[in-house]
Amino acid sequence: MLEASKTLLIVYHSMTGATLQMAAAAAQGAGCESAVEVRLLKAADTRADDVLRADGYIFATPENLAAMSGLMKDFFDRTYYPALDRLNGRPYATLICAGSDGSNAAQQIARIALGWRLKAIAEPIIVCTHATTPEQILAQKQLSAAQLGPCEELGKTMASGLAVGIF
Q: Which residues pair with 8 in a beta bridge?
């Protein structure tokens, strides 16, 4: 008997395109696993039902003012309580695009994931753009293959783990 297909939900917010590139690279990597449905959704469009139907998660956000983006926070605000105690043990990973650090946004997501009782399958991937001026920060970004490679590999790892049931 074949096991039902698994679903990987990638939730992202992106203002300058960099975080979208990271999330899309993870989706591309995960897409190599035919037994896993990959859903790439904007944070603003993601509902609690999307979270509840998924078997694993990748959360991708820019770090804005030393925090996750407001729209990513809004996603968690809208979905946290409807999903509380219903996701226990499911795997997750985090992608952060930052100008200089990224660790605080990663810590915020880790604390939320702890409340949901999710299991981290990897350390957060943080891509630092070194954008420090208003012009650099607000400019559209183009990440390199070297920056996107770990995101794609994370997607492959997550999908493979879901497919064989190790996560």
A: 38, 56
Of 131, 147, 122, 156, the residue nearest 38 (C-alpha): 156
CA atoms of 38 and 29, how far apart (whole Å)? 10
Q: What is the per-residue pLDDT across 39-64, written as a single tens digit (0 to 9) for each? A: 999 999 999 999 999 999 999 999 99
- Residue 127 phi/psi, 5-degree rounding, is -100, 120
To 10 degrees, the CA torsion angle through 165, 167, 160, 164?
A: -10
Task: Output the pTM of the full model.
Answer: 0.96
CB 78 within 8 A of CB 71: no
Q: Could you give the 3-state DSSP secondary structure of residue 59?
A: strand
Q: Are 103 and 109 in contact (CB under 8 A)?
A: no
